[in-house]
Write a structure and sequence with these properties.
Layout (H helix, E strand, L loop, with lengths): L3 E5 L4 H12 L7 E9 H10 L4 H25 L3 E9 L1 H11 L4 E5 L5 H7 L2 H8 L4 E4 L2
Parallel strand pairs: 1-2, 1-4, 2-3, 4-5
Helix pairs in contact: 2-3, 4-6
């Protein structure tokens, strides 16, 4: 039923907890997992605006760290027997998640309930909530 899963991750604790649930989906017929990390364009804009001369270095470090964390996830999922595709995007997290959902023709999204910052969720609403509202596919939300 859910052969191809989109797994958006911000590398938070809840996001890592989601990995346990992904492993269980193997028995439910899941064959492939698309690991997506979105580097928020707001972070890049802030670094560029206030980082001055070092902004290129900082942005490079952000990209390298994201790639390294995503590769760790990829390794664990491959060891569990999944085919894995890693995608790193820069943009608005919600928009990028929905674009990848469509482009990759995923069957469902598995996402953590909360990201790294609770303050943002109080003020703006969580990315998870917006994904639930706007996704065309089923969304499995993993609680803290």
């Amino acid at each position: 039923m859910f052969e191809k899963i989109l797994y958006p991750t911000d590398f938070s604790d809840v996001s890592k907890k989601t990995m346990d649930y992904l492993a269980q989906l193997k028995d439910a017929g899941t064959k492939e997992i698309v690991v997506l990390h979105v580097i928020d364009e707001k972070v890049i804009e802030a670094v560029s605006r206030y980082g001055a001369d070092s902004s290129t270095t900082i942005i490079g470090l952000i990209n390298t760290e994201a790639r390294d964390e995503a590769m760790k996830i990829e390794k664990k999922l491959r060891e569990s027997g999944f085919k894995v595709k890693v995608i790193i995007e820069t943009g608005v997290p919600l928009k990028e998640i929905l674009k990848v959902e469509e482009r990759e023709k995923t069957s469902a999204i598995v996402i953590g309930s909360h990201g790294k910052t609770n303050l943002e969720q109080i003020l703006l609403g969580s990315v998870s909530e917006m994904v639930i509202r706007q996704s065309k596919k089923p969304v499995l939300v993993i609680k803290r």
